[in-house]
Automatic annotation (TrEMBL):
One Pfam family of this chain: DTW
Lineage: superkingdom: Bacteria
SMART domains for this protein: DTW
Name of the molecule in the record: tRNA-uridine aminocarboxypropyltransferase
Example GO BP: tRNA processing
EC numbers, comma separated: 2.5.1.25
Signal peptide range in chain numbering: none
Domain DTW, chain residue ranges per copy: 29-224
Length: 243
């Protein structure tokens, strides 16, 4: 078994260990890499690289979301050094989440559509050049289906106390693995890429977007019976990401 290398890997191993039965996903008979969860012949782990970023991310994941091969939250942790990931609970709040949100090093922002903000919640679409007391931004992303994300937000009062960073992308989501019912619903990694763009790290945003595209292409190839016939797009993305 490969050694977990970041927070999402570790959370995956934890969630898998406490499961009463194996998680059943589409393509469950595939031989998958234990870290990227792609088919072993399309594993992308050897291409992964850490970026130099001043952004931090907190992924609050819905129950078995971390077990899904289609989850793109792990892609953020693949590239961004400071990423934490925890499983959300309706009945009790993880103390580690609260401690992180209240840590003096960070200024947290919940990343969510402004239409769901509470009446007293501050909503921003841009970030100040300097945060209070030179704190590091901590971008909180709710990772799950659209319905699950809404549930997590509505049933987590501690998130209502945070300033909300609302992002309104102009183009339709490229996330074709698990489309939501809303045209503008984005994959978790797509959201993070847009956040990095807003934060003033366009090169990192582009790297994450390319890594996401490579993930999608590798996933689709893993599902295709003709997966070995045309690897040109995948190879092009690998080269683009390495540049």
């Amino acid at each position: 078994m490969k050694k977990p290398e970041h927070a999402v890997h570790r959370l995956f191993q934890y969630r898998k260990a406490i499961s009463s039965k194996p998680f059943s996903a589409r393509g469950k008979n595939l031989l998958r890499c234990e870290l990227c969860l792609l088919a072993q012949k399309h594993c992308t782990c050897r291409y992964r690289k850490q970026l130099n970023s001043n952004a931090s991310f907190l992924l609050i994941m819905y129950d078995d979301e971390v077990l899904k091969p289609s989850n793109s939250g792990r892609l953020i942790a693949d590239l961004i050094p400071d990423v934490r990931a925890y499983i959300w609970s309706r009945t009790h709040t993880n103390r580690k989440i609260l401690d992180l949100l209240n840590h003096p090093q960070y200024q947290p922002f919940i990343v969510f559509p402004s239409e769901y903000a509470t009446e007293s919640q501050t909503v921003v679409e841009t970030l100040p050049q300097k945060l209070n007391q030179n704190k590091k931004p901590l971008f909180v992303i709710l990772d799950g289906s659209w319905r699950e994300a809404i549930k997590m937000f509505r049933k987590s009062p501690y998130l209502h106390q945070l300033p909300m960073l609302s992002i309104s992308p102009e183009k339709t989501a490229a996330y074709t693995l698990r489309k939501g019912k809303r045209d503008f619903q984005l994959g978790t990694a797509e959201v993070a890429a847009l956040v990095l763009e807003v934060f003033g790290e366009p090169e990192n945003a582009n790297s994450l977007a390319t890594w996401f595209s490579l993930f999608i292409e590798s996933s689709l190839l893993s599902r295709s019976r003709q997966s070995d016939k045309d690897l040109s797009k995948r190879n092009s993305l690998i080269q683009q990401f390495a540049e």
